[in-house]
Amino acid sequence: MAVLGRRIAAAVAVLVLALVGARVVAPAWAADAPPQPSYAVSMYGDLKYGPGFAHFDYVNPDAPKGGTLSQSATNTFDSLNPYILKGVPAAGLGAIFETLMTSSLDEPFSKYGLLADRVTVPDDRSWVEFHLNPKARWHDGQPVTVDDVVWSLDTLKTQGHPFYRAYFQNVVKAEPVGEGSVRFTFETAGNRELPLIMGELPVLPKHYYASHPFDRTTLEPPLGSGPYRISAVDPGRSITYQRVTDYWGADLPVNRGQYNFDTLRYEYYRDRDIAFEAFKAGEFGLWLENSAKRWATGYTGPAFERGSIKREQLPDDSDNRMQAFAFNIRRDKFKDPRVREAIGYAFDFEWTNKNLFYGSYSRIKSYFSGSELGARGLPEGKELALLEPYRDQLPPEVFTTPFEPPATDGSGNIRDNLRKAFELLKAAGWEIRNGKLTNVATGEVMTIEFLEDDPNFERIIGPMIKNLERLGIQASIRTIDAAQYENRLQNFDFDMITTVWGQSQSPGNEQRDFWSSTAADTPGSRNYVGIKSPVVDALVDKVIHAGTREDLVAATRALDRVLLSGRYVIPHWQLKATRIAYWDYLHRPEVVPLYGLDLFSWWADPAKAAERSSGKQGG
Predict the structure, then answer these.
(1) In the chain, fewer beta carbons within 10 Å around the N or the C end?
(2) Would you say residue 19 has pLDDT above 70?
(3) Which of 173, 194, 209 is at the close of a domain?
(4) 61 lies in a domain?
(5) Residue 513: helix, strand or coil by DSSP?
(6) Is the pTM of this model over 0.90?
């Protein structure tokens, strides 16, 4: 599963049987009978919501319409085109556009009709066919057509962000079939995820782009078919969306109880500290907290004392990610894994968690953290069988030693860790000369620049830099604006960055963009590290073509174990929850979905919202 703007949380439908209750088995197709259309599709045929369901369980179908949901964004934006490599797109653009199908957030990986009202998938999953909902309309009133769908795929693959080339790589043909239907034919059979991936295809208006170049940044509001359209743009400062009153899909089961706000607004601030002060003053209504320090100490003042601002820590099982300091191994100084491992010993997580994070976090130990997909113990069974053919290409520890990041007692004394780091560096051909860590063969002095776009990370990296200095490494932090950061990221122009690879409960084709050799040479890919490994390429292919849930788990564990052994990153920390604060005129449904926060299911209390806008509640 992949990410487009916000991370789309979706996965296979076996993991949460006990958590989400009774399920409906999707139609099964006999091997000798033609496949039949269905209202939905899942990874392995198990669906929570049956035919004719009224709405998702985590929404309030009677939620009132009206009011404004205002949020903050940081830095700036210079484009309203989120589908190309150029520019920094504005926040919230996903509300304009739609996909063929959509996910529910209370089951791992299923798709229900949106622009398409029916989906047909053969047993071998060698193709998928979507029938468009005849009611689907663009905001200009024109119908959404099969030509739009075919054009969207072709254009995204040829002119869109490089991500799309990798994500839709195995789709060899898109063609009209019958009245109002489109078929995607795949390169090979057996890729169970591809039919669901094609349900995620953003459908764009071919007639609009006939007179608007697709491959350019723009500040002209684009044409979409979704529940909102752009109503105002103040470049780099704010963007406002207005609910489409005659939205064609308002009564679809997947949309009932959602898109309740008349207005969505994003205010831009230079950094999150400034934005938080604006939130406390009532300049916008909702705040997602990513700082343990601020969560522990910053929620004070009149609005909190009155109870005008509520704060909650909501469970979130979608956060199966790797967040880390990532090396750019395109740099010669980082090519030796012993060097990367040694640098990892300079990060004292236990001290950081105790003194900077108020003990809030646990250490990430997997690229699929917090899920059954991550490596554990020693490889066995199917996982071992996948790894065995590559034994001579892998470090012995893959088969003998479970991965554990370096640990300390939290006192700040990491002498033992630094001793181990020195041993690794010496073995890799580095030694201290004139107080500087120097490559014996080339004379290169080890320097590291941590590239950041969030100044809050400076207090975290600072103590690590002091530890690196004890190793003779000259390290520094460079914090730049979002546009510069994005440009350098796309062109892999950095030593180390802080980054996140989000994972769903059903990893698949997006793993190519994360780790493949092809992606390492593709500007704009998410193979930030620059990994080029035949073993990793082979295991990514095993993940993509896993035929059963058991096969998928074995393949992801094998891939995880190999990635961890490469010491490509220094893992960070995690919290399986969402910290959120909001003014009391905002309300949410009682049920919190398992796999992510759904702000579109929230609503505004009209009376309290009116009080806020008139200033009666004060700051």
Answers:
(1) C
(2) no
(3) 209
(4) no
(5) helix
(6) no
